[in-house]
Amino acid sequence: MFSKIIAFSALLAATNAGLYGHAISSQSIVRHDGGHYGAPLAYASVAYAPVAQYGHYDGAHYDGHDFYAHPKYDFAYSVADPHTGDHKSQHESRDGDAVHGFYSLVQPDGSVRKVEYSADDHSGFNAVVHNSAPLVHSQPAYQHYY
Q1: Most buried of 59, 64, 81, 141 (most Cβ within 10 A)?
Q2: Which residue range forms the structural domain that includes residue 97?
């Protein structure tokens, strides 16, 4: 009886097996090979008048000095997303070699951390951190296991 079930299963599998043809791509291959063109019959170059000087540059006065651009910028952004509870801001400014700025963020317990920083060549990087009191006391998270 077992051999009849195996034979019937093999026959059923063979009849349900489809004939798969060759693989077909949904993309087409387009070749952009350059064609071969014959040489021109005659070539005549266009004669241009020589240019005496380009622009206002005079090569005799160039002393090889690189100009110094004074670095100065002011940057600020803030995020206030009530859906995720993400509240943060940052401001930074630079004038020459001195950088001053601050950033603040709301921590998970509701306290606000504000960091004021400055950096220059003489004193290096200095940061002062201010933390406010927590607004929300943490509660234990109860999980139900079903």
Answers
A1: 81
A2: 64-131
Strands (E), 57-111: 72-81, 86-95, 98-106
Asked if residue 132 lies in contact with residue 112, where contact means CB atoms within 8 angstroms, the answer is: yes
Work out the number of other CB atoms within 10 angstroms of the CB of residue 141.
5
pLDDT tens for each residue of 34-82: 666 666 666 677 777 777 666 665 556 666 666 778 889 999 999 998 8
What is the total count of domains within the chain?
A: 1
Query: Per 3-state DSSP, what percentage of the chain is helix, strand, and coil (rounded to 5)?
Result: 10, 30, 55
CB 117, CB 100: distance < 8 Å = yes
- Which pTM does this prediction carry? 0.47
Q: Cα-flanking dihedrals φ and ψ of residue 137, to 5°?
A: -85, 135
5 is a domain residue? no
> In this structure, is residue 29 part of a structural domain?
no
Q: Give the Cα separation of 11 and 18 in Å (integer).
A: 13
